[in-house]
Amino acid sequence: MALFRSVSWPDPPSLIEGEGVVLRVPQMSDFAAWASLREESRSFLAPWEPLWPAHDLTRGAFRRRIRRYARDLKEDNAYPFLVLRAADRVLLGGLSLSNVRRGVTQTASLGYWMGAPFAGKGYMGAAVRALLPYAHGTLGLRRIEAACLPSNQPSIRLLQKVGFRREGYGREYLCINGVWQDHLLFARLSSDPVAPAPGPARPTLVHDADEVGEG
């Protein structure tokens, strides 16, 4: 069911192509671009994320992150991706399906971040649209959940545009920026209508080993 079970890490996984973006599993060679963008975007991202560990942007921490990603993929626990601009493979941000639950639920949680220079340009909406057929189809997930702060209007609009529905309100749902904060709870089902993409292109899965390892 899970695509990556047929690939031995670190063999190149497939890419997911969307409208103007490409999604790819992170590799160790992405460290410099990833750390640079995260550092540049620190003040932009801090209000919406858990506190960063003191050494989060070091090479050693990133190596441990890659190892965790490999374990999560192998065990069908999470599916992390970097978001790259299709035209030049510049790193834009990241998104993931985490906390995968199988059995009678077939559910995962969606999370994402966008680098400050690229926010508000439609890239993350395109990335989520590209991920949905993979999540519901290849991974067989019936339900995808997401949560965001009530004050995060851009994230609320993004989720609604890609077909998520608001389902509830979680009190002190997550510890964000060092404070336990309430969140709006969203979800979409595999049977929900697919939100229209802004352009004519439809997301597809492609296999191309030459695209892995740049950055």
Automatic annotation (TrEMBL):
Keywords linked to the UniProt accession: Acyltransferase, Transferase
Alphabetical list of Gene3D superfamilies matching this protein: 3.40.630.30
InterPro entries (alphabetical): Acyl_CoA_acyltransferase, GNAT_dom, N-acetyltransferase
Molecular function per GO: acyltransferase activity
SUPFAM superfamilies: Acyl-CoA N-acyltransferases (Nat)
Family: Belongs to the acetyltransferase family. RimJ subfamily.
Protein name according to UniProt: GNAT family N-acetyltransferase
Organism (species): Ancylobacter oerskovii
Lineage: Bacteria, Pseudomonadati, Pseudomonadota, Alphaproteobacteria, Hyphomicrobiales
